[in-house]
Amino acid sequence: MFEVRTPRTGKARRALEKRAPKLVETGKKTLILHGTKTSGVLNAVLTEIFHMKKGSAVKFSRKNENIKPFESGGETSLEFFLNRTDCSIFVFGSQLKKRPDNLVIGRAYDHHIYDLVEVGVENFKPMESFKYDKKLASQIGSKPLIAFIGEGFENVEELKHLKEVLLDLLRGEVIENLNLVGVDRAYVCTAISSNMVFLSHCGLRLKKSGTKVPRMELEEVGPSMDLVVRRHRLPNDSLQEEAMKTTREKPKKKVKNVSKDTIEGKIGKIYMPDQKVGDVALPNIAKGVKRERREAKLKNGEDRHASKKLKENST
């Protein structure tokens, strides 16, 4: 169990809020590790994956003896590294006699192993073996296109699972709007058989097409490899149910006196209070009104004097 610490400073509090679960997750970081034994081909594969994921990947160079993803108890140290680096995807390379050039790709939820896919690497070709214009090299932060070709990705369970994992590994940050200038590469995954997938990395060349949308041409820039599916492990039902939870959208507050019509659109009602004209104060008093007031005062004064004389005569 990891020790739960409460933040004491504003910087620590902001860091914890950044790592907290979000309704819309940002790009996932990838952790790349080595096993006890690795071959030269496998080291090159892990290095190429790190370069393709540059900016959102963490690579460990030391060997790890205690990491065995498919065995019980062999996930403890892996989950510890995922928690310390805040990574939700990992790529683990190992070399065994029965499983040469073995690559394990997995996802994590809440820093716990979610699912695993084990593949073998065959016919690997690094970027150095391809000759292409250096302008086609991928830039950091660019958005790739991912194409899955073949019916196996829809019918075979192993390939369907591999498709989901590769999408999370290669797609980068989830965005809503996309500029064509930021699309400079493509990953092409072709299902050769029920357990083999050919993965290639291509650069996009934009050419004139006579319209606003340019014509795109693919040029292979590497790396390329064959991935042979060996083992895979789906997530537990309880963990999958917890990971798939989404918050309900808050119901919108009803706006009074507003309705919508298919013809007129948005319609609103305005209620005006009764206007009491007699109680409204006039801003400017007219001269005629002043004269009437003076005459009324004089008349009232004469009436008072007349009433006083009548009183005196009566006495």
UniProtKB/TrEMBL annotation:
Residues 291-315 are annotated as: Disordered. SMART domains: Brix. One of its GO terms (biological process) is maturation of LSU-rRNA from tricistronic rRNA transcript (SSU-rRNA, 5.8S rRNA, LSU-rRNA). Residues 28-238 form the Brix domain. Pfam families: Brix. InterPro entries: Brix, Rpf2. GO terms for cellular component: nucleolus. Keywords: Nucleus. It is found in: Nucleus, Nucleolus. GO terms for molecular function: rRNA binding. Residues 292-315 have a biased composition (Basic and acidic residues). PROSITE patterns: BRIX. Belongs to the RPF2 family. This is Ribosome production factor 2 homolog. It comes from Carpinus fangiana.
